[in-house]
Hints:
By secondary structure, chain A is of the alpha/beta class. Chain A has helices at residues 20-31, 46-51, 73-87, 98-110, 223-237, 245-252, 288-291, 324-336; strands at residues 6-11, 36-42, 59-64, 91-95, 114-125, 128-135, 140-146, 151-155, 172-174, 183-189, 204-208, 240-243, 278-282, 299-304, 318-321.
Amino acid sequence: MKMEPVLVLLHTEADGALAKAALEVLAAAVAGRAPVDVGLVGSVVQPAADRVAGCGARRFLAVEGEEFAQPRYATDAAAAEALARASGAPLIFAPASSRWMRVLPGVAHRLGGCADTHVTSLSRQDGKPVITRWYYRQRMEAALERAARPWVILLESGCYEAWSGAPGTARLERLPVTAAPRTRVEGVQAPQSGQQTIRPDAALLFVAGAGWTKNQADGKPHVAEAEKLILEFLDRTQCSLGSSKSLVDLSGEGQAVLGFLSHLNQVGQTGSTPRHPKGLATCCHGEEPHVVGWRFVTERRAVNLDANCGWARGKADVVYVADAFAVMAKLNELLRS
Amino acid sequence: MSIAYQIAVCAGIVPDPLQTLDPVAGPAGPALKNEMMLPAVLDPWAAHALYEAANLARQHAGSKVWLVSLSPKAKLQQVMMTVAQKAPFELIAIDGPSSGFTDSAAVAAALAAAIEGIPGLDRSRLLVFGGWESASRGAGATMQVVGELLGITEQFQGVDELTAGPDGSLRILERIEGGCHQVSVCAGPPALLGWATGKLPEPRNNPQVGMANMRSILPALQKARPAVLGPAGAQFHGVALPKQQRQTRIVKDAPVEEIAREIAAWIRGE
Ligand SMILES: Cc1cc2nc3c(=O)[nH]c(=O)nc-3n(C[C@H](O)[C@H](O)[C@H](O)COP(=O)(O)OP(=O)(O)OC[C@H]3O[C@@H](n4cnc5c(N)ncnc54)[C@H](O)[C@@H]3O)c2cc1C
């Protein structure tokens, strides 16, 4: 059966290397046994190309230069368009990174093709790709195919093992691309609190809910104590910190809150959908708009005072009906030893 | 230099997230069971775009906000009863499906055409806003195509902050990986911004703003044209609810010590 050729579109990171998500997409493309081209964008891409030189690609196409060092719509769209036209492959696979998500739907339009984002799996039926992706914020999963080409498919990270072949020397075909952006990228701003709390690669996701700021058994809130418990736990486990919407919204309402949380920590319907292998929810009720954000968290446990919370209704593997303040204090103590 | 912005906010409507959603196979592809019966809300991230637009317009005299919505007009009218009280805007309604299963490119074409039809549209003052991703399709792919169709190459997604400088420049914070923001400065309009949560709380209902808005909303709904959407690009093999029910073990009346020990062992993978 004749397989449609694939262009794997990758960009380098700030350090010039390829992200794990990029290698995952390469693995997904190579596994299809179709002819593969690799297209690279970045300031200097030879080291990245050499890293994947052994993947069996027909061509290594590149758009290189200072103006392509940083993510920016005008330059990235021009680069991706040039790579796609030079390759001519009817299928274009790319990681669903913030950089490619910003531009590739627009690039697909320029190419007269179509794009699907947040794709979680890829298979072939009669040689044609069939993708799965979620609708209504992870509430239902659809399998679909498209006749239009080129078809740009942005794959979520964590769905494939990263490609791990031997490095070599790739023969780069550099494409001349010019763009006249009206935007200057100034850099990256880390979380305002100075606390790096979002760690996509951590083994554990710890979610704090609004309960941490509510009145406790003595009729008073204990926000300072909550902060201390959570920060120590983060420090000891190096886990990633998530939050419910209610908790991050409280700061907008001027209530006492956990100072290191922002909307970026929010998990759920209008927040993120992290992919940690384990998740521990504390003082969070487990309502559906929150739990849809847990779709890709494999093992789930929750600590809640309420035996009838959402987690208890088939949404977590284990629910501990207990006071999270007491449990976390003891847990920190155990982790110290 | 203060610019009187023209801000077009693209916003669809989505089922209230507290509702249970079930997929059904319809004649034109997948749909939601009892879709027209489900209570709807303005798409949350697009709603933040509206609040940010109103805030920017307030700070720049002569600015104007349009809310451009492709949705079933009877449902949109219901949603407008509350949204109209949040911020001053003029509605441009296009009557069509709000389903997540419609194609983002087709929706984008309808939205771009509506924006192009704004009388007196001036690209040197134009900001196109929308939600970063919808709560229906959740693709984050519609706005880019709107921008392409309008010839706007300065595009930003996952925006949490916009500051207009005295020189007319726009300083923009976009969400990127690892809880960080990318900071960019765009020379000025035209620009397109797909908003995430932004920095503003949801405005309180203001009945006076609601009354003023309603004067233009009702005629806009009346003259809403049916959308002519391009062919459905996707061929769906099926849509299914996940097998999400877990066998939850509920640990009650256990000593704190024992619970902590069990969690510690689980974290350590013992
Ligand atoms: C349009 C829309 C979008 C939404 N999007 C999101 C979203 O993206 N993410 C999200 O999270 N929510 C979202 N929601 C909100 C969601 O419906 C819930 O309101 C929210 O998740 C509740 O947060 P919570 O569980 O932290 O707070 P609460 O509901 O207040 O629950 C607090 C919990 O803490 C427990 N508790 C209190 N003290 C203790 C203690 N000492 N020990 C143990 N447990 C304790 C209580 O038993 C309770 O279960 C959305 C809602 C709407 C309408």
